[in-house]
Amino acid sequence: MVNTLSRPYKNQLVRVASLLERLRRRGLRLTAQRRVIAEALEGAHVHLTADEVFERAVARLPELSRATVYNTLNQLHALGEIAEITLDSGPRRYDPNVAKPHQHLVCDRCGTVRDVVPLGDVSLPHDQQYGFAVSDVQMVFRGLCPACARSQPRLGFRSHSTVSADAGPEPSALGAFRTSAKGLRKS
Ligand SMILES: [Zn+2]
Ligand SMILES: [Zn+2]
Q1: Residue spans of alpha helices (H) in the chain
Q2: What's the gap in Å between 167 CA and the centre of ligand 1?
Q3: Could you identify which of 19, 51, 105, 152 might form a hypothetical disulfide with 114, taking C-beta atoms 3.0 to 4.6 angstroms apart as the criterion?
Q4: How far is the CA of 119 from the centre of ligand 2 (A)?
């Protein structure tokens, strides 16, 4: 069996077709419900809870029900078009960026989430797989985003900086935070 997790990460995020475009290519019938739900998940660095998807989608299609949103999210997840992620003890979030493995960088204060691609290899050595068929890895880099760091200058980036998995030296995680936060600021 090929362990896809053993590939070294390429340190880049890849531009991919939007979720809506992918569903269209797949030949999935784009009902009004599916369309507004897919549009709610449009964009970069989108990681919404089911309730947040509902709130965005129902604003455009008032007759939409919460149950339809939950069912559609489950269906899109089963198709592999969105990922389910857990960033903390809160509810699951839905991530339309499924083209390339990536990890997440989270602001401890405001909850801003960025997609990041760590340097190096995040696979487990064979002798530490304990016979598991490993299918996924989720790594969360934590810290303060630039806006939150500015409002709390004394603590800055060092305050809550932890890496929840064995992700290599902490300074590279912090460097990634700074770089990505700067590079990805939206116009
Ligand atoms: Zn923040
Ligand atoms: Zn993501």
Answers
A1: 19-26, 32-40, 50-58, 66-78, 146-151, 170-183
A2: 22
A3: 105
A4: 16
